[in-house]
Inverse folding.
């Protein structure tokens, strides 16, 4: 029998601090789309992060990434038509989601940039994990704002098919605006202007959103 699901929470938190990872490059490129894919630990005390980046000027972004005081040894690991993936070694000890929160049952759904900070979407098994994050931010002078909080059941439709909030918003706007009509009624430039982001960020969101829809609908039926 499956385990019973308790009254779990979904929270969207914005955190910012000059010493959070990649804070310098986020401040220099507020229009870039940056998300954290996952992290690895090569050895005790050594942490690597993978950044998925969409920007209009990758060369300038890479120069700023090399100068960012919170990371070192950035490496380009993948190039796509509309985005690139970088691996960086983390120098800062300040955590976006501290380990005390994950120990209390916090699961990271997504981490993406906004202005000079990070938006973190968390699945929380207990309210204690949220309290631990707030306490950690207070102790370390990290700016902390709750942008969204609700039960997993009440927000379940929003996370259908594994889409992030940004992907869902972009996909619905594209559909409603006639992007998928024949002939097309709106361009990616139009969508970018409506969303206040770059064309490359729009392209990245649409591609990843469509891939997730296929993976979690058509492809899943073949398993």
């Amino acid at each position: 029998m499956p385990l019973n699901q308790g009254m779990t929470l979904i929270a969207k938190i914005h955190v910012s601090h000059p010493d959070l990872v990649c804070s310098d490059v986020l401040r220099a490129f507020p229009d870039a789309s940056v998300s954290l894919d996952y992290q690895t630990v090569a050895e005790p005390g050594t942490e690597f992060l993978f950044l998925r980046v969409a920007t209009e000027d990758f060369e300038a972004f890479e120069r700023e990434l090399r100068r960012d005081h919170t990371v070192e040894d950035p490496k380009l690991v993948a190039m796509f038509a509309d985005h690139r993936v970088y691996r960086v070694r983390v120098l800062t000890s300040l955590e976006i989601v501290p380990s005390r929160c994950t120990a209390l049952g916090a699961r990271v759904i997504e981490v993406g940039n906004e202005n000079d900070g990070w938006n973190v979407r968390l699945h929380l098994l207990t309210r204690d994990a949220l309290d631990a994050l707030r306490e950690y931010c207070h102790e370390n002078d990290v700016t902390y704002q709750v942008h969204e909080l609700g039960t997993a059941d009440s927000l379940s439709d929003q996370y259908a098919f594994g889409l992030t909030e940004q992907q869902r918003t972009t996909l619905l706007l594209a559909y409603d605006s006639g992007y998928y009509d024949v002939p097309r009624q709106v361009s990616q430039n139009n969508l970018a202007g409506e969303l206040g982001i770059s064309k490359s960020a729009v392209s990245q969101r649409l591609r990843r959103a469509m891939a997730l829809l296929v993976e979690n609908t058509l492809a899943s039926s073949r398993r």
Q: What stands out?
A: The beta strands are 9-16, 33-43, 46-54, 71-79, 84-90, 106-114, 117-124, 143-151. The longest strand covers residues 33-43.
